[in-house]
User: Fold these one by one.
Assistant:
Number 1:
Amino acid sequence: MHVVLERAVNEISSEIRELDAETTQLHPKGLSYKWSAQQVIEHLVLSYRFTTEGLEARLNKGLSRNRTRTRLQWSLQLMILSFGALPRGVPALDETMPTPGSFAAMNGRQLEHLLRQEMGAMDAVLDRCRRKFGMERVSTHPWLGPLRVDQWRRFHIVHGLHHVTQLRSVIELVSPSPAPVRITRENLVEKLQIPAQRPLA
């Protein structure tokens, strides 16, 4: 896998790796319209699959003659690919929306494996496109327009790291609260980390 994608998947994986299958299914504040941790990963996986399918279709057909960008697409490419700023509140594409029951419930390790598998498959197709098309724009993103191979990788890095923030928020809201510390006379010094007293000289 390309080193920049490897770094991104490592950061995403570090957030979910230790979660059990019960925690990955929980919705923040019990609201079903808010994505669970697994649904965030499903969304990323579906976005990799959507990209892979588009790239494979382009490999089969060859490059399109019309690879121009609109002014809006140029602006979005500048914002997202150059400055790494993904607009908040933009709805996910229908093709990348997680739907209940489409994936079995998984724990963090299983989700990490799925994430790496799908990103690796997408990266392999990106390599094939680079060998066949070089620095040409190879496939069209619905919002950003036609992108080169390096731009596709950059998009998925920015998109993935955008969802790291969401994952942290979800996990913080659904993880069980730590048990309160019980202070007694016997453990007061230990719990408050008071340094040992020394006799005065």
Number 2:
Amino acid sequence: MKQSITPASGSNTIRKTCAFLVIGLLAAHVQADEAALYGPSAPKGSAFVRLYNAGNQEVSASVGNTQLSDVGPLGSSDFSFLPGGDYSAKLGTQSLTVKLNADQYYTLVNLPGSPPKLVEEPPFKNKQKALLRVQNLTDSELTLKTADGKTLVVDKVKALGRGEREINPLNVKLALFSGTEKVADLKPVSLARGEAVCLYVTGSAGKFSPVWVKRPAATQ
């Protein structure tokens, strides 16, 4: 004898099904948001690398078999992942041997008139704040302050060094200083909780080129 479903039990079944669908969609949305903030999903033990082009012409690079293609002037690719290990990185006619550690992030920098440089980007895991990081690839010590010079943000980043600070997301005008001298006002940058935004500074005294480098916006 076939079991019949009463209207009430049928409604309950439909409601439960809809609830599971909603929960599944919400979980997928959360995963998408996390991927947008913290990087692409990858197998355990992967290393992550991107290309920042500090030059004035479009460039492409490869790290092992991973292609970082068609990055415009002062632009950046997204992070790509590959197993941790030793690789040959090639950018135009130049190449270098790089060691990528598992679960670490790196930026391959195209430097005009100089060999490319691999820069480490320590992972940022605080989902409640944003991170401002200064990657100083110049020959001068530099400091990040508010544009009026009154508030230190990242103090005394040594030449070829890195400095950083966790902050609450906010809108404030920033500038780059060498000692007490302002050397560059910076373009506005948007910050999101859990996101690391890097200021790459290339060039030399009198000709600094500071550029905000962050992951490209996720495409729909």
Number 3:
Amino acid sequence: MFVKFLTTVTRIAEFIAATILGAIFITFLLQIFARYAPKIAWLAPVDSLQSWMQSLVPIGWTINLISLLWVWLIFFGCSFIVRDRDHVIFDVFLNAVTPRVRRLFALATAVLLIVVMIYAFGPTYDAIFESRLMQLKKIQTLSLPITGERIPIKWLFAPILLFMVATILRYGETVYRLIRGKGGGMNSHTSTGTISKDNGGLS
């Protein structure tokens, strides 16, 4: 049931990531159209459409929106979609050792990541949400849909905290599985992997 739950969460995360990527693409097309429409307005078959295209000016907020969505897409994807085995790793020494040593390497790496993320979470949160500069500095071209207030720059960096929490939980599960002897690889997603009888690791 736990694996089924994780699969559902992954599918939802993939849908959200795809939606963000689609929004980035549409915004990019809008930016290109607004920039070059006046130059190709003469191709329009209707005079009113031609006049409208000639009146368009480059849109300033598209670049900032794309940047904001791109940062969110990267950290959101790394938090919920990208698996350990999707990363490029150099495993020459890892494959040269025994499964038991490989398991110890994985355990040490997971514990180290958890400790670093927990240690850095407090200062990172303070730097993003408790900093007066982050609150006062706004993304001048973007505003909230309901209030109309300019979006604070802190929301550009907010997904870093999401990534840190996801990393702590992910590698916390890794430590749990390794202690129980259910994993040993360092290049697999521990939530959905299967135990390999050949090398004692996840694949």
